[in-house]
Design brief:
alpha+beta; 143 residues; Histidine-containing Protein, Chain: A; 3-stranded mixed β-sheet; 2 domains; 3 strands
Length: 143
């Protein structure tokens, strides 16, 4: 083999090696690109899920369910009726130390009264109001 042929063979070998390296770099670049696309796709999916969850949380906060809002209105109306009944009953108009709370149609009485008779009278009056399911009497007698 002559010098000219040897140079041709060397260039050919160099070309094959160079081409092979170039090909493996392209494959590696394609693999990295595919990985990057998958990561971006996953990040997009995760971001969409976070936005959906945040939207659901906001909706739940801003627009409570109708039953909950209705129950609050019912309790407020019941509270007004019980307070009106206590104020109109004879001898109960001067009650300043009695607090009335309502929740789920249950009336809770708290505070202080002058006698056990007055304590019982307040409880009976509250129980007579239409819509009251139960009365919790936590009134204390202070003499």
């Amino acid at each position: 083999m002559g010098r000219k042929e040897l140079i041709i063979v060397l260039f050919a070998a160099f070309g094959l090696v160079w081409g092979g390296c170039d090909r493996s770099r392209r494959e590696e670049a394609r693999d990295r690109e595919a990985e990057a696309r998958q990561k971006i796709k996953k990040m997009g999916h995760d971001a969409r899920e976070k936005v959906r969850k945040l939207d659901r949380d906001i909706q739940a906060t801003v627009q409570p369910d109708g039953d909950h809002a209705s129950a609050k209105l019912d309790d407020a109306a019941l509270l007004a009726k019980v307070k009106a009944k206590l104020a109109s009953d004879a001898g109960l108009t001067t009650l300043k130390n009695v607090n009335v709370d309502t929740r789920d149609s249950v009336v809770t009485l708290r505070g202080t009264v002058e006698s056990d008779t007055q304590r019982q009278q307040i409880e009976r009056a509250a129980a007579q109001v239409n819509g009251v399911r139960r009365v919790v009497n936590e009134l204390k007698v202070v003499r």
